[in-house]
Each structure stands twice: as structure tokens, then as C-alpha cells.
Amino acid sequence: MMRHEPDTLRGLIERVRQATGADHRLDEDIEAALGWPLSWCTDKARPFTSSLDAAASLVPVVKWTLGTHQEPDTNKWFWKAWVGRLRSHQGVAATPALALTVAALRARLAEMEGDATDDATKNR
User: Fold this and answer.
1) What are the backbone angles phi and psi of residue 7, rounded to the nearest 5°?
2) DSSP calls for 51-112
3) Helix crossing, 96-112 with 6-18: angle to 10°?
């Protein structure tokens, strides 16, 4: 996987959105795409898809919000996360860590593309 490529991050965002739980391979792919080395103490990828702490480490923004979301058509409940001062990057997924990972990757993608105030409607 080529690191820091917008298309790579878009693909990862979609994979995280579709995930139903923790996925070690996805964690590894996220680290590879960002060019991050494996964790020095475990020689494994950080658990972005299962840990809020790891997911929050994806962006240098300390402000994030987490809540629930119900799809009106299906009445299914999902987790929703927002990242940024203006809650401008959001993610909806099956677990809190997955939702925050989606939002954090969207914030990184927007930063990469020079659009730090990405419109929230693009993030669904």
C-alpha cells in the first residue's frame, strides 16, 4: 500500500465503515498507509479498530465527540463520532472505535487535500 495517498485513505475509510468489529489486518493497513512504524513495545499495529485511545491518536486534534445514531429507514443503531473544533469530520460505524477511526481518517484526508474544514455532508 502506498502511504499518504488520498485514494488509499478513502479505501480504508470505506473498509472501516463496513467493519463490524475489531480487525487487526485493518489496523495494520492503517499504519502502513500513514507510514507509521509498528508499536515499539509489541511489534504489532495499534488497535485503531478496537480502542478509542488508539483511534484518537490518528489526529492531532484533542476535541472529539461520540454518540449514537439511528438510521431512519432501517431503525438500526450505529455509533457516530465527530473530530475537530467544529465537529466537521464525522464517522458512522458499528462500534465507537470504528466510528472514531472513520472520523479521524476523514480529518487526515481533508488535511492532506488542503481542506481542513471539510463539509460534514461529505462525511456520511
Assistant:
1) -65, -35
2) -HHHHHTTSS---EEEEEEE-TTT--EEEEEEESTT--EEEEESSHHHHHHHHHHHHHHHHH
3) 170
Residue range 6-123 in CATH 3.30.70: no
For the chain, what are the domain ranges? 6-123
DSSP state for residue 115 in the 8-state scheme: -
Each residue's pLDDT tens digit, 40-87: 667 788 999 999 999 999 887 668 888 998 888 888 889 999 887 666
Chain centroid to CA 117: how far?
A: 16
The amino acid present at 5, given as its one-letter code, is: E
Residue 110 CB partners (closer than 8 Å, separation 6+): 88, 89, 116, 117, 118
Task: Find out whether 54 and 64 touch, Cβ atoms under 8 Å.
Answer: no
Q: Do 110 and 89 contact (CB within 8 A), yes or no?
A: yes
Beta bridge pairs of residue 62: none
Query: Does the predicted model carry a pTM greater than 0.85?
Result: no
